[in-house]
Design a protein that fits this description.
Layout lengths: L1 H19 L6 E8 L4 E7 L4 E5 L4 E7 L2 E9 L6 E8 L4 E8 L3
Parallel strand pairs: 1-7
Antiparallel strand pairs: 1-4, 2-3, 2-5, 5-6
Length: 105
């Protein structure tokens, strides 16, 4: 009887432990850069995360972004200047499209 009780308690604790972890849905940030060949990377910075993505044919997508507010930094190639976009909001499981970002010289 004692073995049955111990087994039941152990199984109950293991089951409760499995449900204690919440699945984290992540979002993404995507957009385009003009001119298409004017930048190489885009960075997304928040108080807890630093993410980056390559720019391919003027487009980018940063994946696995946790919900929150980010600052985007576009790493430009000369003669263009690095560009920033503030207050980019990401929601759980959603894709945030920032549209077109134009690089200045």
């Amino acid at each position: 009887m004692k073995t049955v009780k111990t087994t039941f308690v152990a199984l109950s604790m293991a089951t409760a432990g499995l449900f204690a972890f919440k699945s984290i849905d992540t979002g993404s940030i995507k957009g385009t850069i003009t001119p298409a060949d004017g930048a190489t990377k885009v960075w997304a910075l928040s108080s807890t995360d630093t993410l980056k993505a390559d720019i391919q044919s003027g487009s980018f997508e940063i994946v696995n972004a946790k919900a929150g507010t980010y600052r985007l930094i576009i790493e430009a190639k000369p003669p263009y200047k690095n560009t920033a976009k503030d207050n980019v909001a990401v929601a759980d499981g959603a894709a945030t499209n920032v549209g077109e970002i134009k690089l200045g010289q």
